Amino acid sequence: KQRLYSGMQPSADSLQIGNYIGALLQWRTMQDEYDAFFSVVDLHAITVPQDPAQLREKTRRTAAQYIAAGIEPSRSTLYVQSHVRAHAELAWILSTITGFGEAGRMTQFKDKSQRQGADATSVGLFTYPILMAADILLYQTDVVPVGDDQKQHVELTRDLAERFNARFGETFRVPKPVIQQETARIYDLQEPTSKMSKSAESQAGVLWLLDDTSVTAKKIMRAVTDSDGTVRYDRAEKPGVSNLLTIYSALTGRSVGEIEDEYAGRGYGDFKKGLRDVVVAEFEPVRQRALELLDDPAELDRVLSVNADRAAEVADATLAAVYERVGLLRRG
Ligand code: TYM
């Protein structure tokens, strides 16, 4: 079986629908076909200020949502990044073969640091993509399913793998990003030209997996549309409606054309009600299951611990080879 690796940051109490559609849905189907590793990347989350108690809780909540959405921890290796020490260690080694300019070209860093200002931006945020490369390369990964905002980071990962292999001898498998084009980007419901994000300033346009049904329903009914009145996909002219169509299509498996036909000659109200029912039906069982899992944190922690052992076995073998190749003296 080929190896798959992906992860999410525990940066909020709940995942948002972009994470669900852009990543989790793919993960769930791909775990049948691949030897899959899914991490909750808590070391990435601390690149921006975090409250320690909340971070711990968000980490558990993120793991619970993976399982609730159908990731099976008995088959796929679902673990917490900081439980496997090799991640931070390989990130250091990789940082020594990464160009300063190369890291500076990462668009996600440029956007975030511009918004925050240089003094509020940590060096950890700058080296964040290198830690992500370490995540992926430790597991000799073949494929990395992500939304398109992560594509540049996976490309950096490929470059670092090739560079290391060329300099020190074949060590890493060179991974490929897998991006589901139609759903690679889900937009904010209130601002349908910006990507939906866990760290959005306003909550009004973000659909959270763990929100109460009534809150989710309200947000959908209030989603921004346009004055044209027809349910039709047109990203440039009708970003709001197009985004809702993408969500509808992703959750039902029906084509956008079919959904347009169904709502031909009907208003946005009907269309939104239809979408509301689809989203609520999809989210509700996941939400229930996640809350059940969170009722027994000891059991959840046990599962994560068993999986961390499985992950560490693979990661430690890669790290040992890396130390050897680089020329670090082994302790006698
Ligand atoms: P994160 O936590 O921001 O997002 C997790 C996954 O969700 C996707 N995603 C979206 N997809 C579609 N529409 C959206 N609006 C949307 N928002 C988020 C992301 O593309 C991602 O696939 N750096 C990563 C986490 C990471 C990682 C890794 C991923 C760390 N190490 C190794 C893969 C492999 C991140 O911050 O994702």
Overview of this structure, please?
With 332 residues, this protein is mostly helical. The protein contains 13 helices and five strands. The strands form two sheets. Strands 1-2-3 form a three-stranded parallel β-sheet. Strands 4-5 form a two-stranded parallel ribbon. The longest helix has 30 residues, at 297-326. The chain is globular, with a radius of gyration of 21 Å. The chain starts with a strand and ends in a 6-residue tail after the last helix. The model has no long low-confidence stretch (mean pLDDT 96). Tryptophanyl-5'AMP is lined by residues 5-9, 18-19, 22-23, 41, 44, 132, 135-136, 144, 146-147, 149-150, 184-186, 195-196. This is Tryptophan--tRNA ligase. ATP binds at residues 9-11, 18-19, 147-149, 186, 195-199. It comes from Microbacterium marinilacus.
Number of DSSP-assigned strands: 5
Q: Approximately how much helix is present in the residues?
A: 40-55%
Average pLDDT metric:
96
Task: Write out the strand line-up for the largest beta sheet, numbering strands in chain order.
Answer: 1-2-3
Q: What about the largest sheet?
A: 3 strands, parallel
Give the class from helix and strand content and strand pairing.
Answer: mainly alpha
Radius of gyration: 21 Å
The CA-CA distance between the termini, in Å, is 36 Å
Main location: cytoplasm
Binding site for ATP: 9-11, 18-19, 147-149, 186, 195-199
Protein name: Tryptophan--tRNA ligase
Keywords: Aminoacyl-tRNA synthetase, ATP-binding, Cytoplasm, Ligase, Nucleotide-binding, Protein biosynthesis
